[in-house]
Amino acid sequence: MKSPIENPNYTSASAGVVVVDSPPPPPPPARRGGLLRVTSEFDSESASFLHKVSCKLLDSVAKLKLSFQNNIKGQVSEPQLRLSSKHLSLLYDLEDRNALINACFDVGPSIQVSASHDLKANQGHLSLLANLPPHPGYALQLSTPLPSSSSSSSSLALALPKATFRFPIGEVSLEEQEQVEEEEEEREEQEAPVFVKNNNNLLSVSGNVKAQFLNGLCTAHYKDQDLKLRYSYKDDEFSFIPTLSLPSNALSFAFKRRLTPSHKFSYWYNCDSNYWSAVYKRTYGKDFKFKAGYDSEVRLGWASLWVGDEGGKAKTAPMKMKVQFMLQVPQDDIKSSVLMFRVKKRWDI
Questions:
Q1: Which of 26, 207, 229, 230 could form a disulfide linkage to 219, CB 3.0–4.6 angstroms apart?
Q2: pTM given for the model
Q3: 128 by DSSP, 3-state: which?
Q4: Is the CB of residue 225 less than 8 Å from the CB of residue 210?
Q5: Where is the sequence biased in composition, kind Low complexity (predicted)?
Q6: Which DSSP category does 275 fall into?
Q7: Position 12 confidence tier, pLDDT thresholds 50, 70, 90
Q8: E strand or H helix at 154
Q9: Residue 326 near residue 315, CB atoms below 8 Å
Q10: Is there a contact between 342 and 41 (Cβ–Cβ < 8 Å)?
């Protein structure tokens, strides 16, 4: 048992005083209106700036973002204003005076409805996704375009919706496509032949499946009567990825080797065209990366240096700034080599 001095909750019977811990201070009040974030990016290739200003509203219930570009002469272009929330987003183009509306909401625990509408194009899209609760991983999705003008798109208005059935190892889609055939019709009054269009709707099948096979992942993708088979084997140090396309019988393969945790080498070769490419990558911690490679199809060698995570955001980079330098050296004209750079900086106000 602790002594009266060591026990902060000890009650002194003689003094009739109870000594207890003081309650923790109340948390600071939540800030309403959100934080203003400003991001600017400069691309030397296009000699233009891209600016984004965003702010969260109503305790992060909604987000307001303004984006625009300007060149080195100060001319502003592509100004856009976006207001987004969990279930609704509105994108307004100030130059085109056009708005794109997107909405998404749940109907019950297993049905999700999403829709989009382009005011200027008078076209939209409606999608319904139904999960099958007794069978996890199985779902059925129906989607269809919704043109506002039925006179110009009467055939689309009567078209069947695209149906996609999803299952744990892939998905299969059925879509009605309009096929236009031109037939030549002879007329006595005209010397030139006259072509008559016949619209035939056909069902198009597409899909992909994937499964484990021989310590790797085998993927089959079918679309537009083309079948692409891809096998990917990967371990801690070695990756081998052959790809076969049918009926063209086009074969290619990729080879990746991890020399050390910070040194990686990859090689890709196309057996039909004899084109190949190679890339060497070296990382220095999380925020520095060097890459160099060559592509025989475009006969170009290149090297790039990243300061900041290549695939990350500016807020996670040192000083919230990302920098990329790239050198491109054409094999046929070394004198026309180009050094480009890109800088992205974020401020939190």
A1: 230
A2: 0.72
A3: strand
A4: no
A5: 12-21
A6: -
A7: very low
A8: helix 154-157
A9: no
A10: yes
